Each structure stands twice: as C-alpha cells, then as structure tokens.
C-alpha cells in the first residue's frame, strides 16, 4: 500500500475510534457497564457485546471492501476490553472480533487477539490505582517525566502507564512479524520501506486506544462531578430541613408551656400531639412526602395553636382539591408557612382571624396557598421581605429549599396588604407518589439551574 493511502487510513482509523466510543457512551446501559470497579461474568459478556459488535461490523467491512481498511480496530479494542473489563472480557472480546477474520482464512487473528486481551487484563490487575487506567495518554514523554519526578525522593521504577504503552507497542510488533512471516494469516497495515510511516502506524495504534480511553474518561469525570454535586445539594437540603425541626420544636414547647398551669389536661393532650409530630419527624428521612401527609401533620400542629390562641381567635378553613393530595411535595413544607401567618399575621391582631389552606392542580402545576386575614404588610415591609429573610427563619428556609430542589421550576410569591392580610402562593411541578424522588433528581435540577 502506498504511504499516502496508509496515512489516510490511519487518520480515518482514529476517526472511527473516536466515533465508536462517542456513540457508545450516549447509552445509559453501556455507561452502567463501563464505569464499574467489579463486574459479574454476565456483565462482562454484555460489555464485550457492546464494544465488540461494532468492531465485528468493521472487520466485515474491511474484508468485503479491501480498499477501506481503517474500520478494523480488532487489536485496539481487544486491548481496551482487557484493560477496562479484565482478562475474561479481553479474551472473550478478542475471540468475538476474530471470528470474521478466522472465517476469512486469517488463522493467526484468533490466538493473537485473545492473547492481547488477556495480557491487557493482566495489566489491569497490576495497576495499584485504577485511576491510572483512565488517565492513560499516548504521549509517553509525560509518563516518563512523571516517573522521573516521582523517583527523585523515593525510587520506584514500575509505572503502569509506561508498562501499558510498552505492551501495546510490543504486541503491535508481534502482529507485524506475524504478517511478515505468515502472509494472510493476520490483518495488519504495514510499510516496511518507510520508517516515518512505520512509526506513524505504531503511533496511530497507541493513539486509537488512548482516544477511546479519553472519551470514556471525560464522561466518567462528568458523571463523578454530577454525583458530587448531587450529594452536595442533598446534604445542603438535609441541613436546611434539619434547621426547621429545632425551630418548630422550640415554638411548640412554648405553646404547651402556656397551658401547663391552668389546663393540665389540655397540655397533656398537646404533649401527645407533639409526640406524634416528633415521631413522624424522627421516623421519616424522606425529603418528599404526599401532600395528604403534610396536611395530616399540619392538623396536629394547628390543634396546638388553636388551643393556644383560642377557638374564637384562630379559625382554619381548608379548600383542598382531592386530586392535589397525592402530589409529592418537599416534607415540612407547610408548617413554616402557617407558623409565619400565625406569628406575623394573626398574633398582633387583637380579635384574631382565620387561616385559609388551599391546594389545586392547574396546568400541570400544584398550587398551594396559605392565606390569613391578619395585619398584613405595607410596601416597605414587602420590600424588606423580598429576599424572604425579613419573614423569619422558616420562610427563608423554605425558599432556599425550593431553590435547591427545583431551581427555577418552582416559585413562591407573597401578596400582602396592610390591614387586610397576606397570601403566600407556591407553584410546584407534579410528581407521582409512587415515584417519590426520581433517580438523579438533584443532578437534573442543578443542570436545569445552569
């Protein structure tokens, strides 16, 4: 083959390697198989099929179209399967991809590719840090520099990256010798008359493996970053949720303490209701709950507040759409809203007032309203509460939790008029109760925010 055609085939070969790897990582099933430290034999077989079958098609194209030899990546993929999946995956993949070549009369392809996959898998077991596998680079000079720098304070001659590079080059040399002494026994692009082209053939082999590993590693890093961000958001949300519990407990105990002296029976009943509330808080670690459970939780809290203020001064009116009660919402969502209405809206009002709880489903959104006919707020107070910090810890906490969980999908607004009352409205997306929190929910919300 002419040197010019060889170079064209080498460039196309690198493109095929990048295209195949980039296409495969779009599949969730493939990524779940690829990014595992340990795999069952069944999972290894599926990994071999995912990576090997496209290469089998490439081998068939190479056999049927002799002018297009760049589609055969059998050797490179056998090495890749071995170093990622282990000895069994590498050997099985080498056998699978050699089947068309064997039927075509290339008898040396099967033992060579099986051996290549096995040796690559053996190298995987020798890697002290599995991240070395994913950080493999075809630029060997960087590995040599790292080896020298690492050996300056404490000599350690073994470097996995250099060992893997040497194994690729060594096996590629064996392939060259097989093609030279046993023509038609194995497929190999060769140019013995031009040293520069000869060197580029070896470089393209290393680069093809390096490109596929780099593509996989970039997706792996992205998944790790999303997972870390999801865990960070989850921890932040839990911290915000935990802020509510002591705050709620403190205010409830104050309510009960006012009853102990003059009405111990009622205080005892309120303590029982508080115990029911705390039992739910302690037994539930879920971030979400059906709206029905939230209203049941609120009933106990309101019973305490009604006793504290008096039934003639605190009235509760519910207007709940039955279709809305099964919608999943963040847990402990309503209590801070109602507490805020009582504390800032009705408590300063001598004659008391009413709290209206409403819920409905409109345009694929859950609408929750907590309204009071208390003292309300003027424009100056509304400006101060625009960041929700002016409304107290509970309201600011709810606002931040909604931002963490939903990003810009959820909204909480306030409408208040001095002397007439305050209306807090929350708009949330719908989630079915049997799905609870969808997998990857925090990562999806964070990507929405970006």
C-alpha Rg, in Å? 34 Å
Reading side by side through the largest sheet, how are the strands ordered? 2-4-5-7-6
Helix content: 55-70%
User: What is the 3D form?
Assistant: rod-shaped
N-to-C span: 51 Å
Low-confidence stretches: 432-450
| Alpha-beta content class | alpha+beta
- Kindly report the average pLDDT value: 80
Residue share in β-strands = 5-15%
State the helix count: 16
What is the β-strand count?
7
Major sheet attributes: 5 strands, mixed
What is the number of independent domains? 2
SSE order, as H and E? HHHHHHHHHHHEHEEHEEHHEEH
Description:
- The protein is α+β, with helices and mostly antiparallel strands.
- The chain folds into 2 domains: 224 residues, no CATH class; 189 residues, Histidine kinase-like ATPase, C-terminal domain (Heat Shock Protein 90), CATH 3.30.565.10.
- The protein has 16 helices and 7 strands.
- The strands form 2 sheets. It has a 5-stranded mixed β-sheet with strand order 2-4-5-7-6, covered by helices on one side. The chain has a two-stranded antiparallel ribbon with strand order 1-3.
- A hairpin with a 3-residue loop joins strand 6 and strand 7.
- Helix 1 runs parallel beside helix 10 and helix 4 runs antiparallel to helix 5.
- The longest helix is centred in the middle third of the chain and has 66 residues.
């Amino acid at each position: 083959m002419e040197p010019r055609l060889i170079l064209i085939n080498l460039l196309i070969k690198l493109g095929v390697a990048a295209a195949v790897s980039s296409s495969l990582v779009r599949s969730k099933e493939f990524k779940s198989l690829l990014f595992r430290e340990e795999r069952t034999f069944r999972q290894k077989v599926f990994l071999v099929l995912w990576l090997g079958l496209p290469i089998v098609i490439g081998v068939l194209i190479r056999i049927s179209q002799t002018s297009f030899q760049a589609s055969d990546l059998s050797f490179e993929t056998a090495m890749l399967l071995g170093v990622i999946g282990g000895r069994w995956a590498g050997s099985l993949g080498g056998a699978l991809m050699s089947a068309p070549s064997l039927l075509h009369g290339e008898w040396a392809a099967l033992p060579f590719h099986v051996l290549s996959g096995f040796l690559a898998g053996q190298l995987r077991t020798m890697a002290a840090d599995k991240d070395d596998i994913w950080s493999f680079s075809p630029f060997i000079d960087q590995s040599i520099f790292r080896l020298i720098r690492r050996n300056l304070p404490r000599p350690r001659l073994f470097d996995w990256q250099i060992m893997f590079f040497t194994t690729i080059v060594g096996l590629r040399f064996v392939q060259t010798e097989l093609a030279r002494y046993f023509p038609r026994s194995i497929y190999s692009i060769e140019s013995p008359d031009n040293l520069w082209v000869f060197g580029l053939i070896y470089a393209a082999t290393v680069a093809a493996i390096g490109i596929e590993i780099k593509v996989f590693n970039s997706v792996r890093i992205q998944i790790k970053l999303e997972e870390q961000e999801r865990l960070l958001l989850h921890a932040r949300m839990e911290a915000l949720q935990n802020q509510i519990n002591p705050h709620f407990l403190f205010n409830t105990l104050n309510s009960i303490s006012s009853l102990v002296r003059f009405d111990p029976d009622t205080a005892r009943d309120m303590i029982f209701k508080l115990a029911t509330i705390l039992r739910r808080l302690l037994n539930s670690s879920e971030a979400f709950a059906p709206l029905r459970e939230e209203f049941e939780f609120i009933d106990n809290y309101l019973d305490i507040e009604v006793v504290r203020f008096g039934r003639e001064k605190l009235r509760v009116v519910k207007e709940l759409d039955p279709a809305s009660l099964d919608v999943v919402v963040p847990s402990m969502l309503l209590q801070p809203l109602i507490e805020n209405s009582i504390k800032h809206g009705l408590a300063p009002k001598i004659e008391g007032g009413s709290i209206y709880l409403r819920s409905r489903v409109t345009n694929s959104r859950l609408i929750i309203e907590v309204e009071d006919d208390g003292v309300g707020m003027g424009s100056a107070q509304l400006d101060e509460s625009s960041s929700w910090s002016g409304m107290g810890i509970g309201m600011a906490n709810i606002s931040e939790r909604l931002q963490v969980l939903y990003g810009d999908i959820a909204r909480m607004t306030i409408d208040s008029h001095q002397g007439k009352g305050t209306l807090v409205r929350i708009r949330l997306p719908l989630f079915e109760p049997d799905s609870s929190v969808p997998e990857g929910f925090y990562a999806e919300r964070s990507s929405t925010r970006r």
